[in-house]
Design goal:
Helix content: 55-70%
Number of helices: 9
Distance between the termini: 54 Å
Order of helices and strands: HHEHHEEHHEHHEEH
CATH class of one domain: Mainly Alpha
Number of strands: 6
Strand content: 5-15%
Structural class: alpha+beta
Largest sheet: 4 strands, antiparallel
CATH architecture of one domain: Up-down Bundle
Strand order of the largest sheet: 2-3-5-6
CATH topology of one domain: Outer membrane efflux proteins (OEP)
Length: 339
């Protein structure tokens, strides 16, 4: 019945189509959500997803945290200052009875810990960037699907609205002819039933449009926003930047290895895990501390230079704790993700 009504409406409407729906608007109004447009194209949706989405902002902040880690990794350890006071209590005074000792201690990263920390932190930044790209690519794919769904439901709604208007015109014509005796009351009742069915389908279509619009807005992080999609439903043709030749399997695989964010993230995750493991090995090595200072005798007015070098003895703590285990587990996870 609805199919008959749609055909009848199309016959009365002639070549009326959805050109207005497919065209680009000259200007964008502002919806109830401040700063958000009432109508959007696919390009605008992707731009909003990258620049205004709260989730994108949160994930971008993780990249900034990783970049701050590069600065922290390159910082030298702080020196320390020691002061000692020695006073003769008993016995023979062979020099000064009171000695003030001043010294400064500086840890020395002799085994490349600082360089490895910077390398590990820089790989961590690249990993954070690739994870952001991976997350954005997945959400962009879903945004395309929801945008396309919204656009298709809008065009269905427009078609049903045009059919409903056509049926109202037909109903008025048939009613007048039935009153004049040219048509039976059965024809008028049939058109009325068709019109009610189309109205029901139109109501469902409006609900579907509202639902699709809300799902798109929720993905972008603005659940109160209700945008309308603007664009065309057509497949990409050869020469189009988004066209992909699905018959070229080798080309698809080569392109995926270079550009697919998930594969790039997996490679960088492995590199970062190996760097963390190397760092854990270097952090196990002892950090010597160089000391230098002077001892000042108050009685004799003498000054004695003091220097020393201390090494920690890895008798009990040999770096077998959580840091090394974490580095090894990260390496195993990166291998598992690649497989």
């Amino acid at each position: 019945m609805i199919g008959l009504a749609l055909l009848l409406g199309a016959a009365l409407a002639g070549t009326a189509g959805s050109a207005g729906m497919a065209g680009e608007p000259e200007s964008f109004g502002v919806s109830a959500v401040a700063g958000m447009p009432e109508t959007v194209t696919l390009e605008q949706v992707l731009q909003l997803l990258r620049k205004k989405s709260p989730r994108s902002a949160a994930e971008r902040a993780l990249v900034e945290v990783a970049r701050a880690g590069v600065v922290a990794a390159g910082v030298l350890p702080n020196p320390s200052f020691d002061y000692g006071w020695n006073h003769l209590v008993s016995g023979t005074n062979t020099g000064s009875a009171t000695v003030n000792q001043l010294a400064a201690d500086q840890p020395l990263l002799l085994f490349g810990q600082r360089r490895q920390r910077r390398r590990s932190a820089e790989l961590g930044v690249r990993l954070a960037e690739s994870r952001f790209a991976e997350s954005y690519a997945e959400r962009a794919r879903e945004a395309r699907e929801r945008f396309t769904s919204l656009l298709a439901r809008q065009e269905k709604q427009q078609l049903l609205e045009e059919s409903s208007e056509d049926l109202r015109r037909v109903a008025r014509v048939v009613e007048k002819r039935a009153e004049a005796g040219d048509r039976s009351r059965y024809d008028a009742l049939r058109i009325e039933v068709e019109a009610r069915e189309v109205q029901t389908a139109l109501a469902d279509a409006r609900v579907d449009v509202e639902d699709a619009s809300g799902r798109l807005a929720a993905l972008l992080g603005f659940p109160e926003w209700r945008p309308r999609a603007v664009g065309e439903l057509r497949p990409a043709a050869p020469g189009d930047p988004n066209y992909i030749d699905t018959a070229d399997i080798e080309g698809l695989w080569s392109r995926a290895q270079q550009l697919r964010p998930a594969l790039v993230a997996a490679k960088r995750s492995e590199a970062a895990a190996r760097a963390d493991l190397d760092l854990a090995r270097r952090e196990r090595l002892p950090v010597p501390v160089l000391s230098a200072g002077a001892a000042l005798g108050q009685d004799a007015g003498n000054t004695t230079a003091v220097a020393g070098l201390s090494f920690p003895l890895p008798l009990f703590d040999r770096g077998q704790g959580p840091s090394r285990a974490h580095a090894r587990s990260s390496t195993r996870r990166s291998w598992s993700s690649k497989r």
